[in-house]
């Protein structure tokens, strides 16, 4: 018996040519319904209509036509399962080896300037997603195509595989099929969320609502927090304090990302503390114990630290807790707080304390997701380990051992500062941070002025290369002795020459860390 291909598409581009190749070149019998069947018949191809195949007419105005055991049994049957094959034989159901389905144009309907609720509802496909998901589930035996963009490559693969779609390609097509139906369902739920007053996510329907926030970045903006329980911030335990706000969460995220440069919890390479204001670190330090690291981080810029967010990579003990009570802060996050620290910090009733375990961080996954108007951007987290052994010395003078240690510390910080980013540091403490300026010299000037006299003998890190020598000369005028940046500018030589002239050492990392 000839293998069966079922074709039922909303987007009919290329479907006749695909069906002709399947039938005439590879010997498939064609099974189709509705408008797709008419397109194939008009192309002179022999087509069995689904209603003939099932013995059941299309009903309810076409709402029900493919939801039938003779369709889904043919798709879902495992070819190597004797009981499945016996069921097919007993019921006289032929196996369907290839499914070509794309869905009703729901997104196109709701994108029109004018449409009714009923028009949108009628363009919610039911039978199509059922067939796509069935074929994708049984991809060990069935190939599923959901887009005309796939037709040419699938036919080419079949030509090289005796008319069969190769197993690895079937698996990839199954993934694309599930992505197709997931995007379709998300479009429907997004539209409905805009029409019905429900607390549901417009984008990530699989992510549950954790809480409705008091407001967004500003009081006139509504905000909701979606998070998987036990994953990332969804696994944080708030021990005390006021309800978290949108800005708290954004700052907490920035503080956590920065402090994790020094490990976190049992994996900490040493005590570290970070103070963040408006998503930029304003004070970062390491120390022999948590309390000393915290004091140094606050001392880096106590003016900016007022009203800030603190992240600590180890247990907060009593000494650190006393330091935290000496300044108005919004939030503190750490792996744990000792009972003595909890008692001390209880006096600051509005201070939000969050206990976030390393397990919750690990469960969050490697993706960094951000929203833009009408869409999402998903990228890898910029959390790759540093590779100092791959850095190169660009200047005649290499950095001293102390300078190299300071440069490594500064390079850990600069990728967590908004671009253009400059960090001035020495002895395990940030001294000045320049963030978010439209030119690199402006950021350098801010960082160096913040460091003031402490810049003498310190180092400077830049998240991007130096296309001119102006930043180097400015740094030298403030007493900076060594700089680190990615390199890669056509005019790197100008900055290197200036360093040699002024006695600075320069390291090139070969990797940039822009943060927008």
Summarize the biggest pleated sheet. Answer: 6 strands, mixed
Task: Tell me the strand percentage band.
Answer: 15-25%
In total, the number of strands is 21
Q: Percent helix among the residues?
A: 25-40%
Q: Report the mean per-residue pLDDT as an integer.
A: 88
In quaternary terms, these chains amount to single chain
Broad shape? elongated
- Total helices: the number is 20
Euclidean distance between termini CA atoms? 60 Å
Uncertain stretches of 5 or more adjacent residues: 197-203
Q: What are the SSEs and their pairings?
A:
Elements: E1 4-9, H1 15-25, E2 29-32, H2 34-42, E3 47-49, H3 50-54, H4 69-76, H5 82-91, E4 96-102, H6 106-110, H7 117-122, H8 127-137, E5 143-145, H9 151-159, H10 167-195, E6 209-213, E7 223-226, E8 237-240, H11 246-259, E9 272-277, E10 280-286, H12 290-300, H13 302-305, E11 308-312, H14 318-324, E12 329-334, H15 339-345, E13 352-355, H16 358-363, E14 367-372, E15 375-380, E16 392-393, H17 401-414, E17 422-426, E18 429-434, H18 440-451, E19 459-462, H19 470-477, E20 482-485, H20 492-502, E21 505-508
